Amino acid sequence: MLNGPLLVSLIPGIIVLALTWWFSRRGLPLYIRILPGGLLTIAAVILFYIGFVNIRGFEGAAYGILCFFLILFSITSFAIGFKVTIDRIKK
User: Fold this and answer.
1) Helix or strand run (H / E) with residue 20
2) What pTM did the predictor assign?
3) Rounded distance, CA 91 to CA 73, Å?
4) In contact, 36 and 16? CB cutoff 8 Å
């Protein structure tokens, strides 16, 4: 039950992380660097709504698990976009 949504979320998650990293390396403005994470968050919310309202049951729960993994990827993308380091977290 967990392997399917995790494996499905790896493809868009890796693409978003790669885009965010590439935007950070190019030195683009902050709103461009966080755009992939924001779009992934919006997609996760829409998928959660579809799974909760329209599909329901075990299939809807799979959508919810997929959205959980997508949100984890988007949080990581925001961290890369904001250039969060361990030193900044400790302060």
Assistant:
1) helix 3-26
2) 0.87
3) 25
4) yes
Q: Give the burial class of 61: count Cβ atoms within 10 A of its Cβ; 0-12 exposed, 13-18 middle, 19 or more buried.
A: middle
More confident residue, 84 or 15: 15
How far apart CA 72 and CA 87 sit, in angstroms, is: 22
Distance of CA 5 to the CA centre of its chain: 13
Q: What angle do CA 71, 64, 74 make, to 5 degrees?
A: 10
CA distances to 27, 30, 48, 77 from 23, rounded to whole Å, are 6, 9, 28, 11
The 10 Å Cβ neighbour count of residue 44 is 23
Q: Mind listing the pLDDT tens digit for each residue in 19-54?
A: 999 999 998 889 999 999 999 999 999 999 999 999
